Each structure stands twice: as C-alpha cells, then as structure tokens.
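Hi support team,

I submitted a single chain yesterday and got back a structure, but I'm not sure I'm reading the token output correctly. Could someone confirm the output below corresponds to the sequence I sent? I've pasted both exactly as they appear in my results page.

Thanks,
R.
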Amino acid sequence: MSDARPNLEAAPVRVLLGGSFDPVHCGHLALADAAHAYGASEVVWIPVSRSPFKSEGPQIEAADRLALLQVAIQNRANERIDLCEWQRGGTSYTVDTLRSFAGEALAGRLALLMGEDSLADFLDWHEAEVILSLAELWVVPRVQNGASSLAGHRERICGAHPAARIELLPFTLQEARSTALRAQLAAGIDPGRALLPVSVMHEVIARGLYGCLGRAD
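Hi R., thanks for writing in. Yes, this is the structure output for that exact sequence:
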C-alpha cells in the first residue's frame, strides 16, 4: 500500500464516491477533499438506489437526498453527481457502475473512494475480482491508528488478487455519522456546521426532513 502521493499528472483519475447520503454531511465532503488533495481530476458522487449491505433503504425519498447533495456540492469545483444507479433501479452493485464508466470514451483511470470498513469486507462484494480489474481502491481510515489494520486488509486482498491497486489516502478522522445526525435532527437539535453544511441544514428545514422542526443559522 502506498502512503506517498503517486505521480498522477499524466494520468488523471476520476474518483467515484458512492453512498446513500442520508443525509450528506461534512464527513462525506472531507472524503472528496482528500481525493482532490491526492490528485483526483474529478470526484463523481453516486447516490445508491439500494445498498446490498443494508437491510433497510434510505430514510428519505430519492428526490430529497438528491436535493441535499446538490446544495452540498454546488460550489465545489470538479465535482458532479451521476444518477446511473438510480436509473438502473433495484440493488446497487458497484461492478455495474464501473462497467458503465469504463465503457465511456476516454474513460482513463478510475478509483473507488471508500472507508476502511468497506475495505475490510471488500472480498464479499459482488464480482470483487472484476471491480479490481476496472478500478483502483482509494481508502481512508475510520479509526485512530488504523494503518496496521488497513495493511492487513490490503495484504489479504492482494493475496487473493495480486494485481489489485490500493492506495491509502491521508485523512483526518471525521465525527459526522448519518445515523447520529438523523437522530439529532429528529430531536430538533442542530448538529452544527462542523457536522452538517449550513446549505444542507437549510434544505433539511425547508423540506421538513427527518422530523426537523428547528432553525438553521
């Protein structure tokens, strides 16, 4: 696993960031920032229709999740939203998304941006070997001093798939968690701009999402 930033100048990397974004929060934005700092040419946000790893679907409607994501990234350069997984419908499989991106003209390098917890169970993903043939894995830690566990996950994956390309990105751990944010909003608590962007908080209130009855500053 490389801890040094590779030379990406001659090989732009389009980074795919998938998730339910229920709601999108500052931790998600920090992931995108880390990808840009590491050399991503573009970050593509991909809201999932339904994750195969979650028994329950998102807590709010797709149109509301999209609206929150739109206001969160509206002023962020080299970022965009792709609705390919919503358009397919059903359970969202990463391999299908990568196939569609890889089939585009001038696709270039692709990378999946994920947390350490996703890397831990990566070999259980649908068609994991095909995913590794189509994209690099860009991984950020989710716990303090997680380098040793990340190295262990990488060793296990590369042992099964020697051609796997896995990069460890410098990243400051984030406190924002969607589950906790939903609970705070339902209780009428403003999580604060360190956890939830002001633009997102305003949109939550405007749409009456998560049972939020408070006010944004």
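A quick pointer for reading it: The longest strand covers residues 40-47. Let us know if anything else looks off.

Best,
Support desk
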